[in-house]
Each structure stands twice: as C-alpha cells, then as structure tokens.
Amino acid sequence: MDSPKDAETSPRRARGRPRGWEDNSAQNTIKSLDRAMAVLDYLSAHPGLTLSELAGDLKQSPATVYRILVTLEGRRLVEFDSAEQLWHIGPQAFVIGARFLRRTSLVERARPVLRGLMEETGETANLGIVREASVLFVSQVETHESIRAFFPPGTLSPLHASGIGKALLAEMAGERLEKLLARKMERFTAHTLAEPEALRADLSAIRARGYSIDAEEKTLGMRCIAAAVFDASGEAVAGISVSGPTIRMREDMTDTTSRAVMRAAQELTAAIGGVTPPVR
C-alpha cells in the first residue's frame, strides 16, 4: 500500500485545462484575441482586402482592425501588399495548418463520426478509401442489431458494386475514371451496374444529389447509402456509408438516411480540414 509520502511525491499528469473548463462564458474568453481570430478567419476566406473593406465587413473600427493586422503581421500570419494596399493571409498560417494536417488521422477522426452515424440511423457505419479498382474498408462501427452488414477493416469490395465505391467514382474524372470504367466489371446480382453506360448514368445522378445508393448490387437483401469525404484541396479521399438489410433500410427511408450520411461526411471533411465542394 502506498504511503502518504509516496502519494505526495508521485508525479501527476499536468492538466490541459483548469477545473471547470466546460465553462465557455465570457469570463473565460479573451475578447481581443477573439477579435483577432475573427479577422484572421475572415481574411483567409476573403484574400486581398483593404483595411476599410475588412473593417466594414467585420463591423469593427479601422483603428482596432489595423492594430490586429499589425500584430498578426509581426507573427507572419498576415502580410501587407504595399503596392496594392491589400492585406492577405500570411505564410505562417500555412505552417500552422500543415502542422494540424500532420497530426490528423482520417481513421482517428472518423471514429466519433461513425459512432454518431450508427446511433442516428441504427445501422452499421463504414469508412473506406480507394485501392486500385476496389474500396478498402478501414473502419467500421457495427449496429447492435443481430442481422447486420459486416465489412471489417481490410475488406475489399469492387468500386462499381459498393456505395462508397460509387460515391468515390462519381468524384473522379478524366483518364483515371475512364481507365476504371474500361475494366471488366463483374456482375454479382441482377442489380449490379456492370455496363459502363449504366454506371455512368448512375454516377451522374450521384453527383447531382450528393450521395450514392447500393441497392442490392453486391449482395441480395443488403442496401447501402454513401457520401464522399474531401481533403483541403476539395479532392475526395474517402467515403462514409451506412449499410444494412433491406427489411430495415427501406426505399421510403432514403431521404432521411441520405441526409444523415451527408451530414456525417461533411462533419468528417471539416474534422480533417477539408472542403466539401457544392453538389453538381
């Protein structure tokens, strides 16, 4: 048994936040810092603004905004183009963003999103990425139902016959897409889109609505709805889906389920610092 002295001298893990950190009231925020972050955030989304434009858009006094800009300029978070009299985001902002990306793990960030999606829909939630002509499933949160879809990490499924696969194919273009469509596509069920033209038409519909449907195209009696996840350049890097038996994932539930899936995909996109492009 540890002695009181041992307890006193044993190292304690330093706290990342003080007690009562859940309190986000004004007393725990720094207003001047909050204003500075608002300036930085706005300038990152609207590059090349004059002081007057920035102050006007943020409804702050030019003197206040100028002091913020000069402070941020000292840290190279913004920079000033003296020839054009315009303010821009600075190189240090990129450095900080790159550090965030280095610590960002897609699978790690996806876990709470997948769990939330499973709890909202009641069906198994999946995360997959492209591996040649297949989807590689890298994470899954299973439903509590006894009858359920099961794609353990490491499972491969053809792109043309899976919800995630079609969601990612819909975001491809040019030579890469044509090369994949030129492959012989296996027909697994009577519902499989194994002809290039039929698959092209489906991909066009997926792009228009923002999500894909696997309607018993790989396995009879199983249905899946998926949406793409995007990185900082707006490129699809993964797909997120829910899958389950058709007796539960009925066609009349498509609107509700697809909205949940798209929200989850957008949440994960934001969590990895990505940008969701508009539905085309």
From TrEMBL:
<feature type="compositionally biased region" description="Basic and acidic residues">
    <location>
        <begin position="1"/>
        <end position="11"/>
    </location>
</feature>
<feature type="domain" description="HTH iclR-type">
    <location>
        <begin position="30"/>
        <end position="91"/>
    </location>
</feature>
<dbReference type="Pfam" id="PF01614">
    <property type="entry name" value="IclR_C"/>
</dbReference>
<feature type="domain" description="IclR-ED">
    <location>
        <begin position="92"/>
        <end position="274"/>
    </location>
</feature>
<dbReference type="InterPro" id="IPR005471">
    <property type="entry name" value="Tscrpt_reg_IclR_N"/>
</dbReference>
<dbReference type="InterPro" id="IPR054844">
    <property type="entry name" value="TransRegBhcR"/>
</dbReference>
<dbReference type="Pfam" id="PF09339">
    <property type="entry name" value="HTH_IclR"/>
</dbReference>
<dbReference type="InterPro" id="IPR050707">
    <property type="entry name" value="HTH_MetabolicPath_Reg"/>
</dbReference>
<dbReference type="InterPro" id="IPR014757">
    <property type="entry name" value="Tscrpt_reg_IclR_C"/>
</dbReference>
<dbReference type="GO" id="GO:0045892">
    <property type="term" value="P:negative regulation of DNA-templated transcription"/>
</dbReference>
<dbReference type="InterPro" id="IPR036390">
    <property type="entry name" value="WH_DNA-bd_sf"/>
</dbReference>
<dbReference type="GO" id="GO:0003700">
    <property type="term" value="F:DNA-binding transcription factor activity"/>
</dbReference>
<dbReference type="GO" id="GO:0003677">
    <property type="term" value="F:DNA binding"/>
</dbReference>
<feature type="region of interest" description="Disordered">
    <location>
        <begin position="1"/>
        <end position="27"/>
    </location>
</feature>
<keyword id="KW-0805">Transcription regulation</keyword>
<keyword id="KW-0238">DNA-binding</keyword>
<dbReference type="InterPro" id="IPR029016">
    <property type="entry name" value="GAF-like_dom_sf"/>
</dbReference>
<dbReference type="InterPro" id="IPR036388">
    <property type="entry name" value="WH-like_DNA-bd_sf"/>
</dbReference>
<protein>
    <submittedName>
        <fullName>Transcriptional regulator, IclR family</fullName>
    </submittedName>
</protein>
<keyword id="KW-0804">Transcription</keyword>
